[in-house]
Amino acid sequence: MSLKVLKFGGSSVGSADALRRAAAIVHEELPAGGLVVVSALGGATDRLLEACASAGRGDLPGAREHLVALRDRHRQVASELSLWAEVRPAWTPLFERLDQLLTGMAMLGEATARGRDSALALGETLSAHLAALCFGGTFKDVRDVMRTDARFGKARPQLAALRAAAAPWREGLAAGALWVTQGFLGATAEGHTTTLGRGGSDTSATLLGEALGATEVQIWTDVDGVLTADPSLVAEAQPIPQMSLGEAEALSAFGAKVLHADSLAPGGRAGFRLVVANTLRPAASRTEILPVPPARAPGAVTSVAYKEGLSLLRFPASDGLEPPLEAARRLEEAGALRFGLVSSPAGTLLAVRPDTPAATRVLADLAAEGPDLEAGWAVVALVGEGLRADPLAALRHLAALGQEPVGGLLTGGSTVSIAFLVPEARLTDLIPRLHDRCVLDTLQTQP
């Protein structure tokens, strides 16, 4: 069986026109059937979160205002597709369920993680029912197969249980069925709804691709594949036709927004091809992420990535390693992303991005305890399989930095990237310069 899994994000199913474009892609890519994974309509998840927040404060009227707005928006899209009458029987109990959940939260004065997951699940479920009708397929509830633990808000997939539960789906899809299901969602062994956290829809698609034995998973988004740099900073950024899984993992780790890191691991385990394409321009360039690295010239850099908003904690050498390691643990538990922990005879540097209010508070508490805190930093990475072939090339590329105030080099297990810390204010000038100096024309080296 040659099975494809297609995933459409919120912007790709966020309007009647978007759904029509997605339907045309489905009919082109899956003429003999396959699986389609969809996100909630663009903005629906944020609306559901606002409704839960209002209900958690005891503001049921405010929560219901969000519910009404959500219902009206979905009805408008369905009506524009002439599918309102057909989808209404499936949607009515879902909106009733949402009202019940919000009422319960308001009565308790609390929106628990489990309650939020149950409410958020309705966004993807509403979208999947509509997409199934629009695409001419059949809705299948992903919670029948996506087995997770009970870590509500960021559940961990249980791979063996997922593969076992997916056996009936493998049989149905092998027979030529076209099924549409939700991204982002899962369920515990007891049947409680969970969500997979950030990047959950992409991760759902690749996990299902792995469990179903797919040969290809396509991620349809709003860019022409993975680019050589952020186009908002580099007008000359180009799509990368083919890249390795290692390159994709490095780009994801260092700021590229197209793919979440969790979505890449299933492809590494299962060996399927992962494709990133543009719903708005289906015939445009797309990126294939391959399990076997494509040919690269020795020393070639494929792309430049960055992540802004970092803070640096500097610990004196006299502290040893225990305080910075404990600080890293506290920050990560509070939701911070750690980008580097570098120790030398001069001391230890911890680079983090405090992505949550809790992490910001922990960072302030740590600074009050002694280490120096510096905000306004960014991490920049040069990524390319060519660095694996010529490790010394990384040092030559660093010459392009000139007299830039580098805060530190970050090294790790990857041999396809080199990363360093720079002041955030330098990104606008530095990223285009690195792209011009270091990103080589890898198109000529493709087989």
Describe the model:
It is a single chain. It is built from 15 helices and 16 strands. By secondary structure, it is of the alpha/beta class. It has an eight-stranded mixed sheet, sandwiched between helices. A hairpin with a 6-residue loop joins strand 15 (408-410) and strand 16 (417-423).
The helix fraction, in percent, is 40-55%
| End-to-end CA span | 27 Å
Radius of gyration: 23 Å
Mean pLDDT, all residues: 91
Secondary-structure map:
Elements: E1 4-8, H1 16-29, E2 34-38, H2 44-56, H3 60-80, H4 84-108, H5 113-135, E3 138-139, H6 159-165, H7 167-174, E4 178-182, E5 185-187, E6 193-195, H8 200-212, E7 216-221, E8 242-244, H9 245-253, H10 265-270, E9 273-278, E10 287-290, E11 303-316, H11 322-333, E12 337-344, E13 347-353, H12 357-368, E14 372-383, H13 386-389, H14 393-398, E15 408-410, E16 417-423, H15 427-438
Parallel strand pairs: 1-2, 1-7, 2-4, 3-4, 7-9, 8-10
Antiparallel strand pairs: 5-6, 9-10, 11-13, 11-14, 12-13, 14-16, 15-16
Helix pairs in contact: 2-3, 2-4, 2-5, 3-4, 4-5, 6-8, 11-12
Quickly list its features:
single chain; 447 residues; alpha/beta; eight-stranded mixed β-sheet; six-stranded antiparallel β-sheet; 16 strands
Characterize this entry briefly.
The protein is of the alpha/beta class and 447 residues long. The protein has 15 helices and 16 strands. It is globular, with a radius of gyration of 23 Å.
